[in-house]
Amino acid sequence: MPQSQTAPRTKAQSIERNERQYQVGVLKRYGLLIGVSLITVIAVLLSIWWLALLAGVLVMVGIYDLLQSKHAVLYNYPIAGHIRYFLESYRPEIRQYFIENDKEEVPFSRQQRALVYQRAKNVSDTNAFGTLDDLYTQGKEWFLQSQTSHPLDVEDFRIIVGNEHCKQPYSMSVFNISAMSFGSLSGNAIMALNQGAKMGGFAHDTGEGAISPYHRKFGGDLIWELGTGYFGCRDDHGNFNPELFEMHAKEDQVKMIEVKLSQGAKPGKGGVLPAEKITEEIAQTRRIPMGEDCVSPSTHSAFSTPRELVHFLQQLRELSGGKPVGFKLCIGQPWQFMAIVKAMIEEDNYPDFIVVDGAEGGTGAAPVEFMDSVGMPLIDGFLFVHNTLVGAGIRDKIKIGVSGKIVSAFDIAKMLALGADWCNSARGFMFAVGCIQSRSCHTNTCPTGVATQDPYREKALDVPSKSERVASFHKNTLKSLANFVGAVGLSHPYDLHPYHVARRMDDGSIKLLSRCFYFIDEGALLTMNARSEIYNQMWVMADPDSFKADNEAYIAYNEDSRHTHKNAAVDTEHLVFPTDM
Q: In the record, which residues are listed under signal peptide (predicted)?
């Protein structure tokens, strides 16, 4: 990715620029309070007592807003924040009668956000007068309940991550906080998330922005994510530093190591943290200079082939003292993932886990074209990874986590039914700490102090109360998951299967998910006998020593297929993923 074209700013210039921005921000945020204060003084001087009384009451409201810590919007926007809450209180009626329904997702519907808020606040999440869904619409899905349904008292469901190469397996929840970096999120947001994870006994992914003091303060379990910038364990040139990595990876709080190959919001693209968002704390945490844009390259420098990736993962496992090591990716060119799998098999060395990120993910800022038009959606990407591991005969060696627009117990249950081992959520937990989906994450002007480095804005996020909401959201979501499992007549989410979920098709018919998606036979890729020919073809194209497709092997395979009447001679342009099998 090209470096920033702007000239590096000195520390003094950055401070001066930030000060100007802060002064303008103060006028915007506190302008109404300042205005009514002036009106109060003028009204008293002119003996307009009714106006003085009215303006004085508003001043008192503004002072109260500055002293309270429960509502971040009121703290950052005294008096004006009440207008928002007043209008929001009538929002359901306005939407219902004049604008849109509560199920419209932009990108999360009001009903989805309300569900998180209710569970985070420990208030009732039940609704009256029937579903808002059209149960006969195309694509509608539902679980099939059992006549042997029963209540489950389990408050948490856990799995063990770690194969035979792992010396320190980790028992983790099936629902955890997905990758969000300090730098993208404020220090208070990170502390609230981590303290909530500590209280609820689940994991908190650091994101690629390294382990900050805010991650460490409360001691919640961490999954340390290494991106292409190797933040927190890089040398002066931005390359991987084994000594620094070992020092941090052996900390007791770090439970797993995750190498980020790509992310759903912008797969195939690096990232930039603008210089104006870089504080001294961020610079120290990431080991980067002040006054310059922080650029994450689009590719890794520690490896360049699938086989080298396998070696790098083993190096990280050894340096960490044998902790679970894996990688995260949004599926792009499928043969590249298959090349990694081939390298695993040839080296007889397997990651402990893989996290599949769907293209619908997106807590960080990204170009619209990448958000809308690059990368594979979660279900398609997960099923490809799952099928490849099953077809290669190594699914039992590797756990698979998933991330991408997962906020409800239904979302979790569905992905576990399809074969996932656990689920991560980023935006769901952002809602739990107060996010209102203003979609201003990249502007440093987040109204609730969640996605900002403005110390005055983030101060509005009260860590003790928000951490309790994080823990409550997790607890109540898993409680609902237990209700799902019990309603189906089972005792654990791992007993869920695709045939427990039904979907209405385009023609109005109903099919089980086991018939909607293709599921490969165990070991089929090793014998080139996958029922879907596309898997056989892409397996042939995969080269464990290169991320490029092996076109010669592909051509040879198709020639042989013609000779054996397999009818597999097609271009890569016409490869189509299977659905109904």
A: none
